[in-house]
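#help-structures
NK: newbie question, is this the right format to request a structure? protein is 2-hydroxy-3-oxopropionate reductase
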Amino acid sequence: MAKIGFIGTGIMGQPMAANLQKAGHQLFLSEHHGKAPEALIAAGAVALANPQQVAQEAEFIIVMVPDTPQVDDVLFRADGVAAGLSPNKVVIDMSSISPTATKAFAAKINATGAQYLDAPVSGGEVGAKAGTLSIMIGGEPQTFERALPLFQAMGKNITLVGGNGDGQTAKVANQIIVALNIQAVAEALLFASKNGADPAKVREALMGGFASSKILEVHGERMIKGTFDPGFRINLHQKDLNLALAGAKELGINLPNTAGTQQVFSTCTAIGGGNWDHSALIKGLEHMANFSIRDK
């Protein structure tokens, strides 16, 4: 059994933490931002006042918060994780944040004698609950091996990509692919519906051919039914594409399709859908076309 600090028990974090509990690990939770979930406390987790106290109690400290500024705050505030570290403890950031910032955070944590892993995930709320997340990890191989039993309690496809920052780079690449595929499915279904075809039947036909994909299966169905409750919120995917475009600018490369998809996400946010599931990207296209595939 490991002593694990878990900071960030939201839509993704709470089921991930619950899976660690089911695997027999002891959890320590921070209440600096709000009350710890009652279900985790009832199962044996210990609530503490701040991230510093969590780091003092735990061998591994997992962070699962929305964006780069929140990770910075949790790690380096006056009563943050860094203030409670000692040598050989392991900080694992499972948020999806900037690869550039991650390298800077890792350098500061590693300088304390602790070790740092960036380990963002893919698979959404469903994967978090089922313990089937894909986990992309950056850090030292020996630190990865120490943390591997924790990752195995939360995920199935677990890959050490490279050094610190490489896990976050892999996650940004993942989000580019997912976003562009969601837009491709949305454009295809909109095209079919506007031409008078039943989008549900078109999707059924495409599922048997080379266009078949998990995105067409899951998000195509949501688009047709209009079920856009999160899931993975569209404003978080928009944030991830911002990371991609900022990184591309740093690298001097052009990502035109990513930029176009980001504009559609922005349209969705502007018409009130920041908290929709990211499959609601189709609503941005429908808004531009003044046509809905669900109004046939």
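mod (FA): yep, format's fine, and the tokens are attached above. The chain has 13 helices and nine strands.
NK: thank you!
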